[in-house]
Amino acid sequence: MARPKIPRTICGQPANICFKPNGIPMTQLEQVPLAEDEIEALRLVDLLGMQQQEAAKSMGVSRQTLANLVKAARLKVVDSLINGKALMTKSIG
């Protein structure tokens, strides 16, 4: 049985719910879901330049959890960019 997720503090919101390649209908694209906590981890670490320990404290999670979120989010973003997939935001709650 998996442990329940610790509630995470999320301050930023994405400007859009979907990013996709131009000129290709959504029906023809594979979708990659990006959770709100993954977006927040990227925002804090990559956009704001916070150290992982500081970002983890801001989100109310451990440093290792934050590192896992950043790693997963970066993989999804790169997969979408390189392979022409739609990047979709999704709620974690």
From TrEMBL:
It comes from the Bacteria. Gene3D superfamilies: Winged helix-like DNA-binding domain superfamily/Winged helix DNA-binding domain. Belongs to the UPF0251 family. This is UPF0251 protein PQR79_19185. It comes from Shewanella metallivivens.
